[in-house]
# Entry
Amino acid sequence: MLDIKNIYKTFNAGTVNEKTALNGVSLHLNEGDFVTVIGGNGAGKSTLLNAVAGTWLVDEGSITIGGVDVTHLPEHKRAKYIGRVFQDPMMGTAATMQIEENLALAFRRGKPRTLRTGINKAEREQYREMLKILDLGLEDRMTSKVGLLSGGQRQALTLLMASLVKPKLLLLDEHTAALDPKTAAKVLDATEKIVTRDNLTTLMITHNMRDAIMHGNRLIMMYEGRVALDISGEAKKNLTVEDLLARFGQATGSTEADDKMLLA
# Structure
């Protein structure tokens, strides 16, 4: 479902601020893979996600989504293949519109517009059932303006909207980093349920090693713009934070760990 071949990305090339953010990254995801991506600050996690999304084009290499070569496509043309949830809960929803109106917008993504009634009774009931999976009581507040919701509620709604029309690839960019621990746990639980239920191919960036270990069927750890570790199957199921740090040290020759990653 996602095939990344030998991609490179350098910022400010030829200047004193030159920074190689991606250094020959190759990655293959089969349909239904739920991959967590972890690494310290500057490891290349967000650059990888933005390269896949088309926020910026790579210098070398290729990116294929669902058999379509998107390497040279701009961000807006990749949007029909991708669902994305950002770190900032304020992004991804329309604050002045109702919850059900936001869901209707997401539901109609990529479909032709007509003059029929905006939201019919059947759709409203469908949205109510979808909201129940979030376990935040939003199914009883469908006419509330999204701007009145908490950050966690908005982020959960954004997650639902990003996955409403099944994308070929779901990108989660540290989508719980700005939330309190209790709300973050609820959003992660909803993420696991939605991804598993719909068999969504997913890349989830996180700073939290425990979350990276607990969720998904595969874990990738990045270091200096490359994939340093790729752990899946039984090895991932039995992984601990201590094991992860030890394997990271063996793979990179580094004993350094980012403070944000250790404290998360």
About this structure: The domain at 2-81+167-263 is CATH 3.40.50.300 (Rossmann fold). The two ends are 30 Å apart (CA to CA). The first helix runs from residue 45 to 53. The chain has ten helices and ten strands.
